[in-house]
């Protein structure tokens, strides 16, 4: 599968030394295929809980989440910095979604949310609201390559992963916080 616009990818490639695998993967897989499954999302929640329990995901000055809380959880900012970025960097710099599914999964559900929201709350709301028949969700924190130049990915808004996935999706879930 080949992406239709290569200019943002060239800009991205020039700025991301050490992430050749992630850059190559995101250049090859269409932007509306950077998705996760319902099971992936449930497994991600368990992984975050384990990280909090083992103190691998820690409270910060900006996110004083309760380590025993199982309802709200740490913010997506915290989870991104302390889990998503380190794990995907070690795997080659690709997104969480393409780390799990290197050939991609066609988007049929677009999820929009706030990054200040607690990750448990977000995941629980998405799982509860998951439309019957939906298979693969675009959720930016997991879909976009957090260690690469996301600014380069959105420099042409109509070709951004957000726009491409939203256009491909049959359903959209808006998660309030």
Keywords:
177 residues, alpha/beta, four-stranded mixed sheet, 4 strands, 46% helix, 8% strand
Folded structure, characterized:
The structure is a single chain. The protein is an alpha/beta fold. It has helices at residues 7-15, 20-28, 38-53, 76-91, 96-100, 119-129, 140-143, 150-153, 161-168; strands spanning 36-37, 109-112, 136-139, 171-174. 46% of the residues lie in helices and 8% in strands.
Structural topology:
Elements: H1 7-15, H2 20-28, E1 36-37, H3 38-53, H4 76-91, H5 96-100, E2 109-112, H6 119-129, E3 136-139, H7 140-143, H8 150-153, H9 161-168, E4 171-174
Parallel strand pairs: 2-3, 2-4
Antiparallel strand pairs: 1-3
Number of helices: 9
Please summarize the sheet with the most strands.
4 strands, mixed
Globally, the shape reads globular
Task: Tell me what portion of residues adopts beta-strand conformation.
Answer: 5-15%
| Cα-to-Cα separation, first versus last residue | 36 Å
- What radius of gyration results from the CA coordinates? 16 Å
SS elements, strand count: 4
Q: What integer is the average pLDDT?
A: 88
Structural class, judged by helices and strands?
alpha/beta
| Helix-strand string | HHEHHHEHEHHHE
Measured as a percent range, the helix fraction is 40-55%
Q: Taking strands numbered 1, 2, ... along the chain, how are they ordered across the largest sheet?
A: 1-3-2-4
Low-confidence stretches: 1-17
Task: Summarize the structure in short.
This protein is α/β, with parallel strands linked by helices. It is built from 9 helices and 4 strands; from the N terminus they run ααβαααβαβαααβ. The chain has helices spanning 7-15, 20-28, 38-53, 76-91, 96-100, 119-129, 140-143, 150-153, 161-168, and strands spanning 36-37, 109-112, 136-139, 171-174.
């Amino acid at each position: 599968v080949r992406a239709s616009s290569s200019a943002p990818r060239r800009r991205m490639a020039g700025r991301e030394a050490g992430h050749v695998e992630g850059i190559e993967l995101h250049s090859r897989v269409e932007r509306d295929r950077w998705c996760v499954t319902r099971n992936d999302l449930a497994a991600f929640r368990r992984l975050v809980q384990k990280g909090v329990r083992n103190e691998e995901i820690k409270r910060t000055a900006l996110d004083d989440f309760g380590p025993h809380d199982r309802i709200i959880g740490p913010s997506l900012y915290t989870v991104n910095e302390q889990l998503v970025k380190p794990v995907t960097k070690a795997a080659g710099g690709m997104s969480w979604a393409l780390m799990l599914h290197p050939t991609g999964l066609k988007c049929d559900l677009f999820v929009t949310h706030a990054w200040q929201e607690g990750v448990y709350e977000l995941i629980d709301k998405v799982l509860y609201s998951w439309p019957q028949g939906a298979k693969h969700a675009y959720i930016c924190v997991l879909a976009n390559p957090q260690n690469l130049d996301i600014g380069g990915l959105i420099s042409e808004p109509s070709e951004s992963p957000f726009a491409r996935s939203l256009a491909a999706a049959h359903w959209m879930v808006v998660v309030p916080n």
